[in-house]
């Protein structure tokens, strides 16, 4: 009968290490495999599609286990981390030959969703941010780092909405927390599906070089220290590539909340959840992964400083005007690898020979990039020449030390170029001559014995040997040949001469590998000393790459340089502008350009017109034009003059809020309220069909009240589209409101959209025509037309049930109708005569309250 087994020393060691990392998969190194046991093995086998086996399978309590080869472990680690898990990598940390008892093992790195170093493929142009959060009575200290690039920033946020917006903007998958967070904040992180990693102990002494004086608020200093402590505890290695923490304020940039980014499809297509069809897709003509990441950062955080914007614009203009030099720059940038992440791998100690060759090749293109910028010779590009450091000494070092095509491994030799180290050359010569000697020995032995299939071989157990088939053993001199191993069809022998040469050859090979690794680490350390210079160079190249991308797309799609109106003027004038993404998809010939004219005395455009006619596109067009202008790019228009905006608010399209589980109408009201509460006269508001999510009169009253509030109190430039045609009368009451509409004409009973914005209100909504375009059943459309004609011909005093009765559709039986009292008839008369458009929502509420009081008497 199976018996319960006592844990072996190895399993005791495993359990002790696992107890330190209960929330991670433990990859426990045994020989050439990483093994998982117990629950890790059961869950890991399922996720990674591995074969689940057992240890001590004949015991009462067999231990589930599974494993992955150490050389392929990274792929399996990536799968687990991509799904939100942590992986603790446990290695042997002492030489088995010198170990007494169990070989000592420790976790050498904890890989988590926020600490991935090697992004591949499409993810290479994405940042992967790890965030730390500390809460106090005044708000939230927030710090974030991209471990791969070393970028480190911190801020202090006073509102939970701002915190939500930052977390969504950073797309962080992991946040380091302490005990300071209250329950609502923890619930928010859980709803966002962000992994929360607890770090209770905070180390401050070793972090002073990263926490600069610019981090003035205690909350953000603590969050930065919390973040760095977590990194040191999990990564357990040098983090020399981390940059000093930079303080930032969300208010330093054009503010775009996560609803606005989604509505405008800046980074993700709302229909496909992919990059295609977005603003970043349109503008991304970058040639480096560094440039791709920086472009996304710029799009998410447009500038509000006029001087900074104009500096970027000037560089784009200069690059645009120098086609041949720009083409040369693109060719050179294409050859530059991801220097930011290469610097990170150097600091991390994970860099290999191929990485250093990539660094050398990248640096070798810097002189030509400098030459091309010097040929353009404009003041705007002079700053780049100061930052584009070619680091010639590193290029020379790697050229002299590392072979052109090094292997992936850094411990098995063939890394160091001949002539770099005399001692290594001697070992390599001994190996080469020794192997030549072996080849000559084999030829001599064949000739001496007459055994033509005699051969000299090698394995790790017995070393070098002479193998002879069993039928030829009798031909050997027994005094010289010592039997070493017997096989089925052959015998293996050694001779004194072979044994002596084996010692020389194997000694040289081992010493050569050890020396090559030592030389490689010396080169790596010299490169590590220059990480700061490499990072400065990488930032300059990324910025140059983004700006050449702007120049390329601006030339290709005939964008123009926008100007900015004076602060007090606040003029907005876009002549023949277009939605850049829609135009790219449809083609220039199919897209109808539109102007947007909002001089100082016009703050609000009320847009009417049928569905599908282009109202939403017109509104998005303006928002994208503003964003493109404030990141320094040219814009899609014949000409453009814009105010400098501090924030964009949008409510475009209907969508429930999946984070809070709220309805479309509630989200609509929250987004509208966000604008009403926080917009300034320097903001841009885009509201599409506000109020449609509730009853008609409610919606109309809300829409009018919102328009009046923006007009009278906020004074922001606003585009407001609506189907409530009754609201167009507001132009007569509100001095800074203008009516415009999307043109449409009816030809032979068919609706033709002109897609052209025209002055004045729309004369009708063309609802039935749009329903027809949508493919509604013809008999239903015919019925709707009959009802529409009757409604249009019916005086307001005629009851709806009378219309229904004309069509033989009776909703109420006559006997169920009751006589109205004189009081009720008077209230009905007041309802019919009430001018909704002439009253505020509060006045309407008071009137309804009076009616209720009369009816309840």
Which labels suit this protein?
MutS, DNA mismatch repair protein, Chain A, domain 3, 43% helix, 6 domains, 18% strand, seven-stranded mixed beta sheet, alpha/beta, 27 strands, six-stranded mixed beta sheet, MutS, DNA mismatch repair protein, domain I, Nucleotidyltransferase, domain 5, 857 residues
How would you portray this structure in words?
The chain contains 28 helices and 27 strands. A seven-stranded mixed sheet has the order 13-23-24-25-21-26-27, sandwiched between helices. A hairpin with a 4-residue loop joins strand 8 (139-146) and strand 9. The relative contact order is 0.06.
| Helix percentage | 40-55%
The CATH C-level class name of the largest domain: Alpha Beta
CATH fourth-tier homologous superfamily of the largest domain: P-loop containing nucleotide triphosphate hydrolases
CATH topology of the largest domain: the name is Rossmann fold
Return the CATH architecture of the largest domain: 3-Layer(aba) Sandwich
Structural class: alpha/beta
In terms of DSSP E residues, the strand content is: 15-25%
Largest sheet, in brief, is:
7 strands, mixed
Shape: elongated
Low-confidence stretches: 655-661, 796-818
N-C termini distance: 89 Å
- State the strand order across the main sheet: 13-23-24-25-21-26-27
Alpha carbon gyration radius: 37 Å
Write down how many β-strands occur, each being a DSSP E stretch of 2 or more residues: 27
Instruction: Count up the domains.
Output: 6
Give the mean pLDDT.
85
Number of helices: 28
């Amino acid at each position: 009968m199976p018996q319960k087994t006592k844990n072996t020393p190895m399993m005791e060691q495993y359990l002790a290490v696992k107890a330190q990392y209960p929330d991670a998969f433990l990859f426990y190194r045994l020989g050439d495999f990483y093994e998982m046991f117990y629950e890790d093995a059961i869950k890991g086998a399922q996720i990674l599609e591995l074969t689940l086996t057992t240890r001590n399978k004949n015991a009462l309590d067999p231990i589930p286990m599974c494993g992955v080869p150490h050389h392929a472990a990274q792929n399996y680690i990536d799968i687990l981390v991509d799904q939100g898990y942590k992986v603790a990598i446990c290695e042997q940390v002492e030489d088995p030959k010198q170990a007494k008892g169990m070989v000592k093992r420790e976790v050498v790195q904890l890989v988590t969703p926020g600490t991935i170093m090697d992004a591949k493929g499409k993810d290479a142009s994405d940042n992967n941010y790890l965030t730390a959060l500390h809460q106090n009575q005044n708000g939230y200290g927030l710090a974030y780092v991209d471990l791969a690039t070393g970028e480190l920033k911190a801020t202090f946020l006073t509102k939970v909405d701002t915190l939500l917006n930052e977390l969504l903007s950073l797309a962080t998958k992991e946040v380091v927390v302490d005990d300071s967070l209250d329950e609502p904040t923890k619930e928010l992180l859980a709803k966002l599906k962000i992994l929360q990693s607890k770090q209770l102990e905070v180390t401050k002494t070793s972090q002073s070089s990263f926490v600069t004086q610019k981090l003035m608020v205690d909350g953000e200093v603590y969050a930065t220290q919390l973040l760095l402590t977590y990194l040191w505890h999990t990564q357990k290695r040098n983090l020399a590539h981390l940059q000093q923490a930079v303080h930032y304020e969300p208010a330093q940039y054009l503010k775009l909340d996560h609803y606005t980014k989604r509505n405008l499809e800046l980074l993700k297509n709302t229909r496909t959840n992919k990059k295609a069809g977005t603003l970043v897709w349109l503008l991304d003509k970058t040639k480096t992964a560094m440039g791709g990441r920086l472009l996304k950062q710029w799009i998410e955080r447009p500038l509000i400083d006029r001087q900074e914007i104009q500096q970027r614009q000037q560089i784009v203009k200069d690059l645009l005007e120098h086609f041949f030099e720009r083409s040369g720059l693109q060719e050179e940038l294409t050859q530059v690898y991801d220097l930011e992440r290469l610097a990170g791998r150097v600091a991390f100690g994970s860099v290999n020979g191929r990485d250093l060759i990539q660094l050398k090749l990248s640096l070798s293109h810097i002189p030509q990039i400098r030459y091309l910028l010097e040929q353009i010779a404009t003041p705007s590009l002079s700053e780049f020449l100061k930052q584009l450091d070619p680091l010639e000494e590193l290029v020379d070092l790697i050229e002299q030390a590392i072979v052109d095509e090094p292997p992936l491994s850094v411990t098995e030799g063939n890394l160091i170029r001949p002539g770099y180290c005399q001692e290594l050359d001697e070992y390599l010569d001994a190996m080469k001559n020794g192997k030549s000697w072996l080849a000559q020995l084999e030829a001599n032995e064949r000739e001496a014995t007459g055994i033509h299939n005699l051969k000299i071989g090698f394995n790790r157990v017995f070393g070098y040997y002479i193998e002879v088939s069993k039928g030829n053993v009798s031909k050997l001199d027994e005094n010289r040949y010592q039997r070493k191993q017997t096989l089925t069809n052959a015998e293996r022998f050694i001779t004194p001469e072979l044994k002596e040469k084996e010692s020389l050859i194997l000694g040289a090979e081992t010493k050569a590998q050890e020396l090559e690794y030592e030389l490689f680490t010396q080169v790596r350390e010299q490169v590590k000393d220059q990480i700061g210079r490499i990072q400065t160079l990488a930032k300059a190249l990324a910025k140059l790459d983004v700006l050449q991308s702007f120049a390329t797309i601006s030339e290709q799609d005939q964008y123009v340089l926008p100007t900015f109106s004076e602060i007090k003027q606040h003029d907005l004038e876009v002549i023949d502008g277009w939605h850049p993404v829609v135009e790219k998809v449809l083609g220039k010939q199919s897209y109808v350009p539109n102007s947007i004219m909002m001089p100082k005395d016009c703050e609000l455009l009320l847009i009417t017109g049928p569905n599908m006619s282009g109202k939403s596109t017109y509104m998005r067009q303006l928002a994208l034009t503003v964003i493109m202008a404030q990141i320094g790019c040219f814009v899609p228009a014949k000409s453009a003059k814009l105010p400098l905006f501090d924030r964009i608010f949008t409510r475009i399209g209907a969508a429930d809020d999946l984070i809070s589980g709220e309805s479309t109408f509630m989200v609509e009201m929250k987004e509208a309220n966000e604008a009403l509460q926080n917009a300034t006269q320097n903001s841009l508001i885009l509201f599409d069909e506000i109020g449609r999510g509730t009853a008609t009169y409610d919606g109309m009253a809300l829409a009018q009240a919102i328009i009046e509030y923006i007009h009278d109190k906020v004074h922001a430039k606003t585009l407001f589209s609506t189907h409530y045609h009754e609201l167009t009368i507001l132009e007569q009451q509100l001095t800074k409101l203008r009516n415009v509409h999307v043109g449409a004409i009816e030809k032979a009973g068919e609706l033709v959209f002109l897609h052209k914005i025209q002055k004045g209100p729309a004369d009708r909504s063309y609802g039935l025509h749009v329903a027809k375009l949508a493919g509604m059943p013809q008999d239903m459309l015919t019925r709707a037309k009959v009802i529409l004609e009757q409604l249009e011909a019916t005086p307001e005093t005629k009851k709806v049930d009378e219309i229904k009765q004309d069509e033989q559709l009776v909703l109420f039986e006559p006997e169920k109708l009751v006589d109205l009292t004189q009081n009720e008839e008077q209230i009905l008369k007041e309802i019919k005569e009430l001018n909704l458009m002439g009253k505020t929502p509060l006045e309407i509420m008071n009137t309804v309250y009076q009616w209720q009081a009369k009816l309840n008497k």
